[in-house]
Task: structure prediction
Amino acid sequence: MNIPDFVSEVKLVKERFESREVYTVLLILLVGFGSFGLGRLSKLEDSQPPILLEYAPPNTAAAVSTASPEADAAKQALAPGGRLVASKAGTKYHFPWCSGAQRVSEANKIWFDSVEEARKAGYTPASNCKGLK
Result:
């Protein structure tokens, strides 16, 4: 194969790709694969277990009736030691579900019932824990 033959082959391939038929086929294939992928993704989301909230914000916890002992037990299960947690060696306090609080070992955890109590003890809010002021 010499250079002029090679150039003519390249020109033939170029002419084939200039037709709209090739682009139409590619578009149909892309739409098909995209639809298949989205369908599989939606099926995977349906099979995942639902997300359960372990902590109710204070304003919704007050709306729950605590007349039954079962409700009292559920309320105590929300935060085993209090509403806020800090480390003995640290300077920041966190909500129990924040990543910073989960990294503190159980032996080093200090529990507080209120923000005021944590601030009086010399702790400041963690910046990576959303909702703390």
User: Anything to note?
Assistant: Residues 20-47 form the longest helix (28 residues).
